[in-house]
């Protein structure tokens, strides 16, 4: 296949049509023409030569083969040095082609266009594509994701407002990205305000939104705010997932609040958390990493007294650490308790 792509590249560099070569390939090696990379090469060649009409039958054939378009298909948009007007005219012609053929080529093609212009920072063109493709929350969310990848965090809020003005209602994923971006620029109060507005306007946010917010707060050391939202989760009957519990415990540890971390684990166990085993094991593991093997041993004793089984790997690490410190009796006692627990 490499030799075929080389031929397409050579034709492209010399601005020679690849249609005859593609038609010959379709007859002599039809299996190659089912490859998205090869398909992208011929579409790209048409674009380089401005032959948009020739794209239509090719894309119709791709639709029949259930082929999606990749970035290679529109590489010419990067190679050709358009001024603003020429670029928009070219995009309009591509959009017309995609709307004419429909199917997988249409949906994948629009996605690739949004991606290409987002990566190059041409968000206005990406928004134009969304407008032509049909405004919906998934396309806007994809553009938002590209903005986040580029680090254009401050533009995310503006785009969310534009969505609303265009009659596209943001969903949980939209707000998760907005909140995440606000955190990355250090705007914690506005992030929490966005969340509270979401709660007020749309009722109960989903657990993913809650978990995302709490983890972000912990990541940025905002433990008090994180606990406020954890309390809200409890009031609404939403159980934090194991990653969220872990984020809170690690945040306490990072700031030297070991007693608070222990209290949090105990309280979550009392509330019947399904991740109690993981929480206790993580707590023991963090104490071990800190060099406090005796404390980690006590944590394992405490959890096993409650009928909770530690992670085997962590349990063995603590046993071996005790033995290295000549605490063989403690290691044997830990082993006795562990075996007693798993045998019951």
Automatic annotation (TrEMBL):
Transmembrane segments: none annotated. It holds the Pfam family PPR_2. The keyword Transmembrane helix does not apply. PPR repeats lie at residues 136-170, 171-205, 206-240, 276-310. Keywords: Repeat. Belongs to the PPR family. P subfamily. This is Pentacotripeptide-repeat region of PRORP domain-containing protein. The lineage of its organism: Eukaryota, Viridiplantae, Streptophyta, Embryophyta, Tracheophyta.
């Amino acid at each position: 296949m490499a030799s075929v792509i080389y031929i397409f590249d050579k034709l492209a560099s010399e601005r020679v049509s690849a249609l005859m070569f593609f038609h010959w390939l379709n007859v002599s090696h039809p299996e190659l023409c089912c490859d998205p990379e090869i398909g992208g090469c011929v579409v790209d060649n048409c674009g380089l030569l401005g032959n948009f009409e020739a794209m239509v039958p090719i894309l119709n054939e791709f639709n029949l083969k259930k082929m999606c378009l990749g970035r290679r298909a529109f590489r010419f948009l990067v190679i050709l040095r358009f001024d603003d007007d020429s670029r928009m005219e070219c995009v309009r012609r591509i959009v017309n082609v995609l709307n004419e053929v429909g199917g997988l080529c249409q949906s994948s093609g629009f996605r690739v266009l949004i991606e290409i212009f987002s990566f190059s920072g041409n968000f206005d063109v990406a928004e134009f594509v969304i407008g032509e493709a049909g405004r919906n929350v998934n396309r806007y969310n994809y553009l938002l994701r590209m903005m986040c990848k580029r680090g254009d965090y401050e533009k995310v809020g503006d785009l969310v407002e534009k969505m609303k003005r265009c009659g596209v209602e943001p969903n949980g994923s939209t707000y998760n990205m907005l909140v995440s971006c606000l955190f990355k620029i250090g705007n914690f109060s506005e992030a929490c305000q966005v969340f509270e507005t979401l709660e007020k306007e749309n009722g109960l946010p989903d657990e993913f939104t809650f978990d995302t917010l709490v983890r972000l707060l912990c990541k940025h050391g905002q433990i008090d705010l994180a606990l406020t939202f954890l309390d809200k989760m409890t009031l609404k009957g939403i159980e934090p997932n194991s990653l969220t519990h872990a984020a809170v415990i690690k945040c306490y540890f990072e700031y030297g609040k070991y007693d608070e971390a222990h209290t949090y684990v105990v309280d979550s166990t009392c509330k019947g958390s399904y991740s109690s085993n993981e929480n206790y094991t993580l707590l023991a593991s963090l104490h071990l990493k800190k060099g406090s093997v005796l404390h980690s041993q006590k944590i394992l004793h405490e959890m096993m007294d409650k009928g909770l089984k530690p992670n085997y790997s962590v349990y063995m690490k603590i046993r071996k650490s005790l033995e290295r410190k000549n605490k063989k009796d403690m290691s044997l006692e830990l082993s006795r308790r562990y075996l007693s627990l798993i045998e019951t």
